[in-house]
What does this fold into?
Amino acid sequence: MNSKLIELPTEKLLEKFGVGSHVPGSGSAAALQGMLSAQLILTVINLTSEGKRANVYRSILPQLKEMASTINDRIYPVLQTLFQQDSEQFDSAIQLRVARDNESGFMRGKDLDRKAQDALKSATETLIGVAKLCIELADDANFIFNYAFRSARGDSGVALHSAVAGIAGCLSIINLNRLSIDDESWIETIQRSSKEIKVEYERLLSLANDNQIVLENEVNEFQALQADVRVLEKYKLNIRDLSNREIEAVAKKVQNMLWKYRDTIWKRKKPENPLEILQPQIAFEKLLKYKVFKREKLDPYQLSGEFVEIAGIIDNVKKAVGISTLYPVDIQNFTLAHELGHALIHKQTVLHRDRPLDGSDGNMARDRIEFQADKFATYFLMPEKQVRSVFEQIFSMGKFIPNDDTVFALNGGRLESFLLKCRNLRDLSRIIASADSFYGVPFRSMASLFNVSNGAMAIRLEELELVEFVPSVNSSLSFAS
It folds into this structure.
């Protein structure tokens, strides 16, 4: 048998496996499964390394490059050789057996039997080589399943299962061949190798099963997320006015969903801190399936006879939200959270435009639905529990009241001088919202931590009664608890 099987067209090769001949046999099939695994691994590596994904997966690219090099330079070429070699060796063993069975001479028959066993030994040793290469490929496939391009985990999973199936096939044939060989020393050596391969097979089979469970859990979590989103979307079917408490409940539900399903939503870089999930763009894109686009200018619209610039626009029919990048990040963030409020609690289907919003308007007279969207943005971006927690961590108190001690801790100055600049509660709230050190310890200001304006955070501190203005100078006051 001199023709190279691997050079046959796929259909012809598969026909040869199915015609009932011993060539190509199960050993070649095991090698072919390893070759398929190798090619699928290379596919996933290429997908992971191309375009924008290269930046997302840059930490593992060196490892992937080395993996691809090993497969191309050693593993795949050797598997090709073993694929052909197994067929030739097993064919030789079969031909020698036939000659042995037809031989009438005793000594000649014994010689043919020895040669047949030697050929079978060679074929068995070839299978050990195939199994060891499949073990390498299975580990590579498991790595890319867990760390490479997530949307290619179908290819990664098939690569892993193909390699594991190749190992299983090799073990079956090795054990079967041992029944036909009476060389005890050789059998002992093969048995040791077989046991080592079996240990690896069971380890890799367990990994493959674990990966299946991972995907099943992801599917279950995704379906649960979709069910919760459908419940969330029912809020806007309620045509009556929502109270502030009801609006806050909607905001909390969105926050809880973002935290509960963070594995599904963020995938690779899931948030570890609850503050990290307060992202209106993620809520729009991952929960409501809206397209969020950002551009420098949005189309102006006419108000009271004049054209005004807008910072946000929402189209609930097309499920699209636009945000102008002309404005600071805190304004973009509050405006986007405001639009999220519209999407969740209001039934309007027409194109809706908003002026720049930073949440510092407070309780100024506004249209009812605009006021509600503002309240939603406030509750979503500055949830009570997190604001209180951060406040206490920074200031080590339940409420900030200006006195000799607190003012000194805040800016190292005297209370009298502080009160000349801080004349009312709003002044105090803005100072606390923007403070970036206390007792000389630096930190990110609360406004910065929550990605809102100083004015918005100041109003929230007042709503939660975390600040209290005492206009009289009283140096005997101590920290409030």
